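Entry 12.
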Amino acid sequence: MNASPARVTEVRVGGIAPLGPRRVPSGFVKHPVVGRVAVDANGLAGDAQADRRVHGAPDKAVYAYPAAAYDAWRAATPRHAARLVPGAMGENLTVVGWGDADVAIGDRVRLGTALLQVSEPRTPCFKLGLAFADPAMPRLFADVGISGWYYRVLEAGTIGGGDALTCIDRPSPDWTIARFYSVITGAMIADETLAAIAALDGIADGWRLRATRLLARRAAA
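Predicted 3D structure (tokens):
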């Protein structure tokens, strides 16, 4: 179990607003919350997603991103350095003390009075490019290789900036977010790896279904 100390420096929420020159509706831009905020299976109070088919929903209720990752981002794309500060990835939680290699699929985490569970890494869409007026940003996201992670909410509660993150259960310690993200963005995934993904405790339903379907197609072929 990950016993290293970690905390949330800021909690952010955002409404739906037009993004980029095409004014695409998006909840990407988020602002710090003063005080405590309620969180439940639908996410943080005051937070919104324009398209819940691909954002939000129970398996993506809360998005966390490590503050230390912004150093890697500024090195990778100096032209955006001034904007690459905590909050720039559209995260709900900016985390210090944990990174992708410290967090694993299925981890159950106490934050404030809420109980959260790690469900999957983030794979960004074109809206990241719109937010930075740079269509290369989604590709750079993969190059930087720090995805952050989504939480589902197992027990509703309240959270706030400064709250500690405490991992109370880790069913799959070998399946860190860093490893999972490397697997899904790498070469063809072996059958045994797909089977392991499908069996992971706490994995997002979407990834479980993808792995199961791909295994079935390969078996049929």
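Annotation: The CA atoms of residues 74 and 118 lie 26 Å apart. The longest strand covers residues 114-121.
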